[in-house]
Amino acid sequence: MSATTQSNKDRVFIFDTTLRDGEQSPGATMTLEEKLQVAETLDDMGVDIIEAGFPIASNGDFEAVVAVAKHVKRATVAGLARAITADIDRAGEAVRHARRGRIHTFVSTSPIHLAHQMKKTEDEVIEIIARTVAQARNLVDDVEWSAMDATRTPIEFLKRCVDTAIKAGATTINLPDTVGYAVPDEHFRMFKEIIGSVPNADKAIFSVHCHNDLGMAVANSLAGVAGGARQIECTINGLGERAGNAALEEVVMALRTRADAMPYYTEIETTHLSRASRIVAAASNFPVQYNKAIVGKNAFAHESGIHQDGMLKNAETYEIMTPASVGIKETTLVMGKHSGRAAFKDKLRELGYELGDNAFQEAFQRFKDLADRKKHVYDADIIALVDDEVGSAGDRIKLVDMEVVSKTGGVHSCTMTLSVDGEESTVTYDGTGSVDAIFSAIKQAVGQQPHLVLYAVDGVTGGTDAQASAHVRLELNGRIASGNAAEPDTLVASARAYLNAFNRVMIERGAAAQGAMAG
Ligand SMILES: CC(=O)SCCNC(=O)CCNC(=O)[C@H](O)C(C)(C)COP(=O)(O)OP(=O)(O)OC[C@H]1O[C@@H](n2cnc3c(N)ncnc32)[C@H](O)[C@@H]1OP(=O)(O)O
Ligand SMILES: CC(C)C(=O)C(=O)O
């Protein structure tokens, strides 16, 4: 069954060319296995036509088109061919294995291409179109003809070409914006004019094929549809020659989300989009940019407090599509320096914490300080921070300020200001290393000499900006207590863990910090 017979007035056919134009991106070459996986994904998703390759290009491309043709269950499988007898025969040979095969043949129509690439006159091109489309039509029922560089072709000549192709048997007419030159309004008018004035235009489906050189591939594709086109040629992740093609996920979701403004529809199962994007990114080795529409890592992620607050109240405040509609499990509220209290409270609830007002305000302040210093604040950071906050909430001896000077082969000295029950004082102490100087300074300040049973430091997460989680166990007069602290700075974490243990060992003695702050 050809696209023509499937047609319905508002139905837009999705022609995916990830395996052909997408693979033309330098570096995006895929293996046969990868192509089959991509084709299967596209087929499952409801893509109408899969352009599987350019069979004359190489034996590998021919084999890939044959394999995809045999493998695909539902979609039409197309093979590309120049307006050359051998190309068309080779494409016909490849797509005959498909349940529905299409030959997609193309020739240049713009003056610059005719003069410099093809070295043909307009009349010669008309003769080529008539002959090659007829040849393709003798091989298969479903023939697409493309006017390469249509958007830089004089409209009257383009009409002659289209008329010739349809008369010769083309069932789909594609007017590509080969070099990404068009602007939406002009694209709309080109389709409107051609479809409205070529006498046999109703015998074919018109198609858009837009490149993204000026970032307008999706806008131009949609303008073409408004002008009467009913097939969009596109690729997953917008992969394709130079700046790429129109992204399939974007055109499909634009049509779905703004059906009020664009009353057209596709048969794509949109919940497959995210998976398809991941598969193509892996197969082509082209990572998807974080802020890519629909499938980028940040497409459904919010970090700023005002947006997070809105999202928690009603997701429609800042999301025009649901993540589930494109196959993403859920929205992520990323905790960072732009987050506010609403999101922080929600995150704490998710992590199982209910803090009182004061503890919450203190934890929030520490979270903000941490986020200022750290690129990514992970759940583990927040857990460490809150445990630390909760664990040291009753501490009477607190670290106010600390400066450590360390010299290779020289002295290590620590100047520290501590507060005991709100009263501050400062001491300086030297040690055999930085940590030794810190712990000695604390002992001197507090006027007690506990025995250090354990000292250990771990990274809360990975990376050089990860928080250090320090653990200290002290023994004083037969009592043992442990303390923990998490900080981006290992030495500060160590000092705070030591103080935390010190506070506990004191409390256990029943006379917190009695006689402390000797210095
Ligand atoms: C806009 C597009 O995306 S078009 C598709 C682009 N994709 C590719 O080119 C990928 C696959 N291509 C290839 O493997 C090779 O280019 C081949 C096998 C097609 C041709 O290889 P070669 O015979 O070595 O030719 P080469 O690539 O050097 O030049 C292309 C030739 O095709 C001609 N040509 C280009 N488009 C067409 C066309 N639509 N119809 C007829 N001839 C064409 C050119 O004028 C040139 O002919 P010339 O050698 O007589 O000057
Ligand atoms: C072969 C055609 C459809 C093409 O890829 C283009 O013109 O960009």
TrEMBL record:
Coiled coil ranges: none
N-terminal signal peptide: none
Domain of life: Bacteria
Enzyme class: transferase
GO biological process: L-leucine biosynthetic process
Family annotation (InterPro entries): 2-IPM_HCS-like (IPR050073), 2-isopropylmalate_synth_dimer (IPR013709), AIPM/Hcit_synth_CS (IPR002034), Aldolase_TIM (IPR013785), LeuA/HCS_post-cat (IPR054691), LeuA_allosteric_dom_sf (IPR036230), LeuA_bact_synth (IPR005671), PYR_CT (IPR000891)
Subunit organization: Homodimer.
Region (Regulatory domain): 398-519
Cofactor names: Mn(2+)
Reaction equation(s) it catalyzes: 3-methyl-2-oxobutanoate + acetyl-CoA + H2O = (2S)-2-isopropylmalate + CoA + H(+)
Protein name stated in the entry: 2-isopropylmalate synthase
Residues given in the record as Mn(2+) binding sites: D21, H209, H211, N245
GO molecular function, one term: manganese ion binding
Record carries keyword Cell membrane: no
Taxonomy of the source species: Bacteria, Pseudomonadati, Pseudomonadota, Alphaproteobacteria, Hyphomicrobiales
SUPFAM superfamilies in the record: 2-isopropylmalate synthase LeuA, allosteric (dimerisation) domain, Aldolase
Family the UniProt entry places it in: Belongs to the alpha-IPM synthase/homocitrate synthase family. LeuA type 1 subfamily.
Gene from which this protein is expressed: leuA
EC number in record: 2.3.3.13
A single cellular component GO annotation: cytosol
Organism: Devosia oryzisoli
Keyword Amino-acid biosynthesis (UniProt): yes
Residue ranges annotated for the Pyruvate carboxyltransferase domain, each copy included: 12-274
Pathway stated in the Swiss-Prot or TrEMBL entry: Amino-acid biosynthesis; L-leucine biosynthesis; L-leucine from 3-methyl-2-oxobutanoate: step 1/4
Keywords: Acyltransferase, Amino-acid biosynthesis, Branched-chain amino acid biosynthesis, Cytoplasm, Leucine biosynthesis, Manganese, Metal-binding, Transferase
Function: Catalyzes the condensation of the acetyl group of acetyl-CoA with 3-methyl-2-oxobutanoate (2-ketoisovalerate) to form 3-carboxy-3-hydroxy-4-methylpentanoate (2-isopropylmalate).
